[in-house]
Design a protein that fits this description.
The structure is a homotetramer of 485-residue chains.
Chain A (H helix, E strand, L loop, with lengths): L3 E2 L1 H5 L2 E2 L2 E6 L2 E4 L11 H5 L7 H7 L4 H5 L5 E5 L1 H8 L5 H12 L9 H11 L2 H8 L6 H8 L4 E3 L14 E3 L2 E3 L3 E3 L14 H10 L2 E4 L7 H6 L8 E5 L5 H14 L3 E5 L9 H21 L19 H7 L11 H8 L4 E6 L2 H10 L3 E4 L13 H11 L3 H4 L1 E5 L5 H9 L4 E4 L1 H33 L12 E3 L1 H4 L2
Parallel strand pairs in A: 1-5, 9-10, 9-16, 10-11, 11-12, 12-13, 13-14, 14-15, 15-16
Antiparallel strand pairs in A: 2-3, 3-4, 4-5, 6-17, 7-8
Helix pairs in contact in A: 7-20, 8-13, 10-20, 19-20
């Protein structure tokens, strides 16, 4: 029978040498786990001797406790009379700010474009979460250039052609898609919405576009599969490959069995990017909650002029997530090994130059995604649309040998059309789905797709393109100087 | 005999299922018309059970009621003792702001250039009207580039030539014009001035330049014709072609019979542009008047997180105006059909690339207008002056085969001179005439033309050009880098 | 014997039909002169019936009254007992502001560069004067580009060469100059300092550089000649040629007789530029003094919506000054005529393109000044340093056939060095001498020249150039892209 | 026996004709030295009759007094009872500001990058010191371009290569270095920290990188040598060569004997740059302390409109330091002479163009540093990374003939990697070490190096470079247009 524990009992174990926490009214002794916490020991110690339910639920799905803690970690349950107090947890100033913003957000029918949704999302999530989502590497040059580069590509619109009927649908990797876009992989969807990535699955199903699910999604692969609108709705599986081939193979086979239709191997994350905005967010929180927690533990934070890097998490969220990943993947070994493990088509996500696009074609993969990880990995990687343009100019043959997708900063129908004119088969959007989920849930995602559909059809008509195959390279002109004004 | 109705009676019919409105002291039952209102049902429902005279008169000319409502729509007249109350309509805060600004506007003799007038106009019209006039598509890149592109073209001024005598007059499509400019087509002139486009007709007549009148002008074609200063004053007719050829032919023949001298077919509006500034203006008004009206009808506007696009007008003003237009015009069918319908010279308005300029020459039309609809249609269409420059560089022969006009962002004599040096026969200005009409009426339009005349003569002299034919391509140099500083 | 008049008598003549004014205690009837006043009738009517001494003295030298008014214009003198009241003229708010700024200006030894002096000058003169000095044409693109263009030219500094001894002196048109710069022509020097351009003469003489004096200088040619430090100090004469050859010839011969050493014919002012900053300044003053004067005359200024250009001076200060100038000068007639009138070397001021530089060389003149009149004439004329660079690239032979000078935006020793590397013999500075004179008088001008000397020597050494002839085209590199950052 | 003097006695000698000062409780008569003070007589007169210990200690090391003053300059010692008062010296507002900022600076473990440290340093030193450190010549164009130029160079990152093991170490001039960077020479380290440059020596020793020590370091060569972590830690000696060869030779031989491993001759400082930010700093101080001192001496500072340059120090800090240096060094004489004086390898610091890099290779020196002295000497010298890129493109052979280093604006690992890809053997950083020393002392310098190590390894991995020799020119692309957005 399970032991009954009081909050007072728990509060006696609030140091690194004996650390208990409360999660969903159960008490766990996490002392031995503290040094192994992926997000750094500090994050967990902040809740030592206290209720960690809220922080836990923000990023974890239910299975994590069983998977990560030892069987004997469960100390007991809160006494019944104390449980009610959990519901009256004090709200932080940040919580109050968010609640107030949620009440004041504009109705969904006043949202005109994707940036409108982004600005709502920025207000209704914590500053720390938004820093994690929206930030890029170091000075965020590639992050910014991904967006700004579009303004160098102008259209050459034609007139006096029939465009009353205009069809933006296409075939992607053999699957029909109502639009030439797909929902790209993003991590930790619970930070956006309690239903996490399953909201994306449902919205994509309803409107007929493909979703790519991340290894780091909050929703498990099986949750996503069972959230489909119908059984033929295509989902793709994005893989961060672990160094341990056995672990990786198990994950891949699990996805294939569940019914995922393609395997997207991320190749641009052999090291985690230096995302300073994300790193800096931990110092913000120190000013209020964390600092309080640390002080309670009798430690001083006054260590200035001392070199003590271990005290700070310099990996950030992404560093924690990528721990244990394979930094020795190669063209020669990894691709053939993948082929031996799965029958799913293979797509390489994170190609950043023409040379590697050619190597990909030679390696026999089925597709590539020109991507710099949304400006979150290699700082000063070229913007995706520029790499796509270089590939079109230097090696147009590659577009015949595999399907080329692209992501990075796409927010407008015109931007998608520019990529399609240059030869992309489809365009991935990541952050916009996180923002929509955070701001308006599943309906926000539906709205996001509808906005893109409306923009795509309007601008195809104005270009005099009545279907996707009418979009040709000669309809786009790269004009440096115009972009500068 | 017509029935007498009280305001109280009218106010009992204020829902979509029974909607009466008062216009010019008459009561109409518009219930069956509500769903067909071009500007969206919401706009009309806002006045359900109330006096709509002011809003109606802002955009409609007198004939509209007869043309659009059924015979039995007229319910009756206001009782005489209630009519006086119409004159004491409450003024909104916006009305008061405008009145105050009108009193404080600078005297016309302190206006130095066209931008001065624009800034007056911005103050003396409603925010909604100014958003409709001044806005462009989406992020307004083409709108901005139309203007900024001029700064890439510098002059090569010559010295020591006779320029005491300097003549800026020219011949456009066979008609003498005192200046190498014309007033281009603009919509809904009543938003600017009660006399709408007839003010433009008179001012153009007085100063000897051509006016092109829009299908969507508030003043009817016959009103414009009868406003001419003398019977040989040339007017051009701009056509938005309806899908129904019969309707279109009737309109064209009517214009020709009235005495219009050219037919300008708009070819860049097969779909209406995504003009977000215009769309967003409806949300501003919701914050005050419209919201109030909606609430009175017992509906809640709290629909956040619900997908309900039908509730919002996503077409905007332009979408409403272009409804029913022909989206299947072609080079092969439309041009010959036009020739069969009219003897007026044909000009294509909205050519956006060299290829279509060549097709136009081959199609045998009399002129083209290089135009992107003032940045209001295809976002990221190239700025007009750049397309003109490309045509000059790549296909100078086109200038021999038809007359080339250009519009888009012209505000200065120097900008007009740059286009003329590159081969344009004349330059169209649209918004400046709206702004002048709104700010100072007919005298404002006269002033606008005089300002341009003064700038043109000053700068022709400083270039050492004593007549229009002295303006040559070698007098303009495109220097990218200078524009960037 | 001269009549005695009271202030009361004068105040009875304050309309356009009978206009008396007081200047230096004398009363003049200027009724017949009012319509011919170069600055517009309004300016003079503002002082109708009042004392105009202060306004008169600001811009006029003593001889003007005799030259312009008829003999019988002198009505009489102020009664002695009323004269003292002239000294107690009320100070305007602007006067008080200027006085206060003059007290607070930094000591001259804290001035480090020419822009420091400019910012002092901006504070210690009236806003109207500063607008006249500092403004350019229309949107002031060429004005700004003159300065910004320098930042496209970088140096290629050499090392390990002897530069302990470094000599910045040179020979200009046969005259020794201690520095490769000269004081260029500027108008209305009395606005800067009571001693006007004679301060420039003295400072240039002391430090050994050439002064070019303007036709529109406040100091007369003979005043300047007699202000020289020694009789061999070279002065140049700048000519605005009148349409009447006889008048022009008299002026030229007078200058030659007085001892001027060169004739600089301005060729870029066949029409006066559209200087809106200058024009707008008259509206500022209307808000206080002028408006008051107009109202006293019983006229209303409420003429909005009326076209009444005659009411406003659209020529501005420059238009007034250039009235009557020759707008029909030609290469074929004007240059030979000049040669027939004078033996002074001839320099053309205002060459703006390579073609005209070549024509100048063929016409046999002795020098040209590449200049766009400081951005005050043709808007969008290329910046001077760019025209110089084009001449160097396209027609280096011209530098052998005549001396090439340049002006326009030069404020730094580095900028002067860039022009010298590209082949200029000397660089003219205009506004800096006005600013220095206004801010600190003759000492300010001396300081200006010393600052340039110090910058020139420092940077010649850092370039490893020990004399002017060491400055070569290969020491300057035009790098567009750097200038953009 | 030494005389006892009271503070009252000292205060009687507070004019230029009899000037006593107190330093470390001793009284000196510096009357004859005042006109020779390298920083200008004003600085020293400010302390006439007062205690100058604090100001003295800020910039001077202990040996200066003996070296510069005559033996009889020592007047006596403070009476014992007055010494204690020295400790109670009043703090200026600036001192108080700095103390407050020091207390509030962030703990070192919250520092993420080098700019973070710079912004701390800006707060915790005097404004005058920061102006001296951070400023450049004139308008600081080259200073700014040094940094901005990096943003024109993008990476071409590769994927699917083994990078688990990643080694950023290299060999520089035969010495192993843990990172491809070195600490460059900087002056007056005592302004940053009491232990001055010895902190840099220790930190570099601990982390295995080379330090180059300046002729103008506050720490003497022997202090630095004895601060090494171990006897084989390599130090380089930077030389400002005096005009007197004998003096220079003595200095070089002294360094060689002490154990310095290379001689870095500065060649870009034949004249001192016109550093206006540094010059202007003296006027700031006049507003408080200095002015007060001057006034006490009975002099008025009201000299406006007077030319009195001698009153102001127009050389600035750098001018004072460079006095007496050799401005007649040549390729032909100076390099062979250096070879005759020392066996140390010779490096030329301050090469600014391809031509001089070639001359250096021909002269047989061992290395060059492409440098413009951090934008502090020749204004409009090209940014270092651009000169490096030109050398790579035009004369790749030079990289085979000597080692090429580069400095100027480097703050990020990515910037260092760009230079290495282009062929640089190592990158020098100067100001960052000053800033780190001022903000956090030796630990700050250690942190600085660790930050760079972390950035270098992260970005080498993301580039797929596992060692320094994997960095190739084809991994960097210069893309002008991207930098402009």
């Amino acid at each position: 029978m399970i032991k009954t524990v009081t909050r007072k009992d728990v509060s006696d174990h609030r140091t690194a040498s004996s650390c208990w926490i409360i999660i969903q009214n159960r008490i766990y002794d996490v002392t031995s786990f503290v040094p192994h916490h992926p997000g750094g020991s500090k994050l967990i110690l902040n809740y030592a001797g206290r209720d960690a339910t809220k922080a836990f639920e923000e990023v974890h799905t239910g299975l994590v406790l069983e998977e990560t803690l030892q069987a004997d970690a469960l100390v007991g349950e809160l006494a019944v009379e104390e449980i009610s107090r959990a519901g009256t947890a004090e709200q932080s100033i940040e919580d109050l700010r968010i609640e107030s913003e949620r009440r004041r957000k504009p109705p969904l029918n006043q949202i005109l474009n994707l940036r409108d949704i982004e600005s709502v999302a920025e207000k209704v999530v914590s500053r720390k979460t938004f820093a994690f989502w929206s930030g890029g590497s170091e000075d965020e040059i590639t992050l910014q250039q991904n967006s700004k580069a579009f303004s160098r590509f102008f259209f050459v619109p034609r007139v006096l052609r029939r465009i009353q009927h205009c069809d933006p649908s296409t075939i992607i990797l053999g699957y029909h898609s109502s639009l030439p876009i797909y929902a790209s992989a993003t991590s930790l969807g619970k930070l956006a919405h309690p239903k996490a990535e399953t909201n994306v699955t449902r919205a994509c199903g309803k409107l007929g576009i493909i979703q790519m699910s991340s290894t780091h999604a909050s929703s498990s692969p099986s949750e996503l599969i069972s959230s489909r609108i119908h059984s033929s709705q295509p989902l793709w599986f994005q893989l961060y490959k672990k160094a341990d081939n056995q672990v990786a193979a198990t994950l891949i086979r699990h996805a294939e069995t569940l019914g995922f239709k393609a395997l997207c191997l991320t190749v641009d994350a052999a090291s985690h990017g230096n995302r300073e905005r994300d790193l800096r967010a931990q110092f913000i929180s120190e000013d209020d909650e964390v600092r309080k927690g640390v002080e309670e533990m009798g430690e001083s934070s006054a260590k200035e002029d001392m070199i003590d890097d271990e005290d700070v998490n310099l990996d950030g969220t992404s560093g924690a997530l990528l721990k244990g990943d394979d930094a020795d993947m190669t063209w020669e070994e990894t691709i053939p090994w993948l082929r031996s493990v799965t029958k799913m088509p293979i797509i390489l996500k994170g190609i950043q130059c023409v040379e590697d696009a050619v190597l990909a074609a030679e390696s026999g993969v089925d597709g590539i995604i020109i991507s710099n990880h949304g400006g979150r990995q290699m700082e000063y990687s070229l913007p995706s649309i520029e790499v796509l343009n270089l590939l079109r100019k230097q090696r147009p043959d590659v577009f015949q040998r595999l399907e080329v997708y692209v992501d990075g900063g796409f927010r407008r129908g015109t931007e998608v059309l520019k990529a399609l004119c240059l030869g992309a088969k489809a365009v991935g959007l990541g952050r916009p789905f996180l923002y929509a989920n955070a701001a308006y849930g599943e309906n926000g995602i539906v709205k996001t797709i509808r906005i893109l559909e409306r923009e795509l059809i309007t601008d195809m008509r104005l270009l005099s393109a009545s279907c996707i195959s009418d979009l040709r390279p000669e309809m786009v002109e790269r004009v440096d100087v115009l972009a500068q004004l």
